[in-house]
Amino acid sequence: MIVRISEDGQYELDDAHHAKLNELDDAAVAAVDRDDEDAFHSFFEELLQYVRTNGTRIADDDLRSSEIIFPPADLSFVEAGQDFTGDGLVPDPPSSTTA
User: Fold this and answer.
1) Separation of alpha carbons 82 and 51, rounded Å
2) I need a surface site. Which of 3, 35, 81, 83 has the fewest CB within 10 A?
3) CB burial of residue 52 (10 Å; 0-12, 13-18, 19+)
4) Could you state, in order of their start, the residue ranges of all structural domains in the chain?
């Protein structure tokens, strides 16, 4: 999957990382719901660092579309209240079927 961090770049991650991204995204949403700014920033930074650490940076001239787009690292808590709501920013993975 391709993950974009706004104002940073795109990273390619194996689909096996989807569950961890979803877990961190859900934790950030829960922190926003609790109005816990410190916890939000902690989870959001962990989320971005996870992408940077486990993903492979894609060249700027590689124009593949992103499946997940995260806001920039300097996102304010007020802005987070607009983005980190409901199911968060990480969509459910495509369902796979076996024959």
Assistant:
1) 22
2) 35
3) middle
4) 2-81
